[in-house]
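The following record pairs a protein chain with its ligand, flavin mononucleotide.
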Amino acid sequence: MTIQEAIVARHSVRQYQDKPIEANVVERLNEEIALCNQEGKLHIQLVVNEPKAFSGSNAFTYGKFSGVSNYLAMVGPKGADEAIGYYGERLVLLAQTLGLNSCWVGLTFKKQPDQYRIADGEKLHCVIALGYGATQGVQHPMRPMETFIKVAFGQVGDTMVADQPDWFKQGVEAAMLAPTAVNQQKFEFELIDDHTVAARARFTLIGYGKMDLGIAKYHFEVAAGKENFVWV
Ligand SMILES: Cc1cc2nc3c(=O)[nH]c(=O)nc-3n(C[C@H](O)[C@H](O)[C@H](O)COP(=O)(O)O)c2cc1C
């Protein structure tokens, strides 16, 4: 499975099989985590065989997640939300190609501070559950493509979408498949000129706007091709 295929195949999975992640898969994930941490100046850590974060029956976890024993502790500097989203999704999609399933989790887990390290100035932004899913999840509902595209004054609707270059439309389509907190999808893309794209988080009361934006930007880059554009 390619990363492009993983974008289509990935859905949030909250029920997992009682099966440890294979050693070679753990090794591959740790290699990629090291690269992401280096490039993104983050402190992401893989926690395996640790069921406590998703056990018990508090108001959040009850009935929702089961069988979660592995997760990415998404640790990084305070304010690094967009990078956490971008590099976390790079790991999520790699995990999908390695036969794993995943779910970003901002709230519905219990912190286990003895399982990961948080340096001065850093925080645990969220976790990402990983493992062999009991299901493959389902496709989230999506708004029409034109609602994700910001256009210059005077352009409207379908005409405007049809006028965009293919690589840009492919990027937006891939971003629409991205996970976002409560599926809020509060992001937009704008083609500024032939090879420049702006991506913005829209206002959200729920939060996670910047993290969602980082996730969506990673999807966009994979599908649009980094050689076709630069971010503004
Ligand atoms: C930043 C972020 C935080 C999330 N937090 C939670 C959470 O606390 N609990 C949960 O069950 N799902 C959580 N999700 C998963 C979303 O509900 C899910 O991605 C969204 O509904 C879209 O579905 P999909 O991932 O299957 O495409 C989170 C997703 C993101 C991106």
